[in-house]
């Protein structure tokens, strides 16, 4: 169970940090554009659709913030949800075997990220390539969860 606890701690730290990223979203978007694309034109480089979308977001966030600041309150609650879920994951450290349902739920959520991204990204006018970005969170999040569940299964069988 030591290995499981280490994975839970690492997973929780990454999950918590992911949640914190919603708070400085304006700074993050402008920094992401600078790091990925520098001063290149929107149609240059890899994934020009994502570059174009990031430029739109970077332009529109200050407008959104000035005209509809309450929308950012939703971002705050999203960050809060990540913090609360991190506490839930850390709570499993007491008894990972008894709390395996939390990892099962998290794994189901990772799987559901994929259809969610591919349905709603196009509906919201995002480039189709963005669905792969969002889906990657489900794929990469599932890896430690699968390891944890396999270890828990081994512990249950001994």
Summary of the model, kept short:
This protein has 158 residues and is mainly α. It has helices at 2-20, 25-37, 48-67, 71-91, 100-123, 128-157.
Topology (SSEs and partners):
Elements: H1 2-20, H2 25-37, H3 48-67, H4 71-91, H5 100-123, H6 128-157
Helix pairs in contact: 1-4, 1-6, 2-3, 5-6
Mean pLDDT: 91
Strand content: under 5%
Helical residue percent? Answer: over 70%
Question: Which spans have pLDDT < 50 for at least 5 consecutive residues?
Answer: none
H/E topology pattern: HHHHHH
Please count the beta strands (DSSP E, at least 2 residues each): 0
Query: What is Rg?
Result: 18 Å
- Structural domain tally: 1
| Class of secondary structure makeup | mainly alpha
Identify the overall geometry.
elongated
Tally of alpha and pi helices:
6
Major β-sheet profile: none
Report on this model:
The chain has 158 residues and is mainly α. The chain has one domain. It is built from six helices and no strands. The chain has helices spanning 2-20, 25-37, 48-67, 71-91, 100-123, 128-157. Helix 1 (2-20) packs antiparallel against helix 4 (71-91). The protein is elongated and about 60 Å long. The two termini are 12 Å apart.
């Amino acid at each position: 169970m030591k290995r499981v606890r280490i994975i839970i701690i690492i997973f929780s730290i990454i999950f918590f940090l992911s949640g914190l990223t919603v708070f400085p979203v304006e700074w993050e978007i402008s920094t992401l554009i600078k790091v990925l694309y520098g001063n290149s034109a929107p149609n240059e480089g890899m994934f020009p659709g994502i570059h174009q979308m990031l430029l739109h977001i970077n332009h529109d966030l200050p407008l959104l913030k000035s005209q509809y600041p309450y929308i950012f309150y939703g971002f705050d609650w999203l960050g809060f949800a990540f913090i609360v879920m991190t506490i839930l994951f850390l709570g499993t450290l007491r008894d990972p075997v008894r709390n395996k349902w939390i990892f099962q739920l998290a794994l189901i959520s990772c799987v559901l990220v994929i259809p969610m991204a591919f349905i709603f990204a196009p509906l919201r006018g995002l480039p189709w390539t963005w669905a792969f970005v969002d889906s990657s969170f489900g794929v990469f999040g599932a890896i430690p969860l699968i390891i944890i569940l396999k270890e828990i299964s081994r512990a249950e069988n001994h």
